Amino acid sequence: MTGENDNQNLNPNPQITDVDIGIRNLRKIVIYPLSMADQLSTTDLITEAMQTFFASKDEKDEEFIRVLVDLIKNNLGKIIGYATGGDEDGEELLKEITNEQAVDIAEILYDVNYENISKKVQGLLSRILDISSQLGKSSQLSPSSTDMDSISSTDDLSEKAD
User: Fold this and answer.
1) pTM surpassing 0.70?
2) What HEC string does 62-92 produce?
């Protein structure tokens, strides 16, 4: 019975991905979608790097690359730790991951946590704008509208009623 309960608690989420890492011997690690808190922290790290870059008076491509490299060096272990759901020590994983494997993990993180979410948010905003424009049209037609120019006088209304 314990095995059945364990299977019921497994998350069948397609966003959860296995990735092979290793330099000499490959092993699988699990990459989970970031929690909202971890995603916000990751976004803050990226935003901070962008702000640092644009705040500098020397806005050369080399400076931007240096800022990004510093951001990655200082925070990659933390971000990988987020991505493994805390199952792995991100700093220790850096000793086992090749650059190509790190890029694969970064692509998964972007696709799952940013690209798909961005598409969903855009769709949601589109639906909200559609509803908002429909509400705007219906309020223009309603008698409680604040547009008094559409009613020329109460005499006109009483004549139309006769």
Assistant:
1) no
2) HHHHHHHHHHHHHHHHHHHHHHCCCCCCHHH
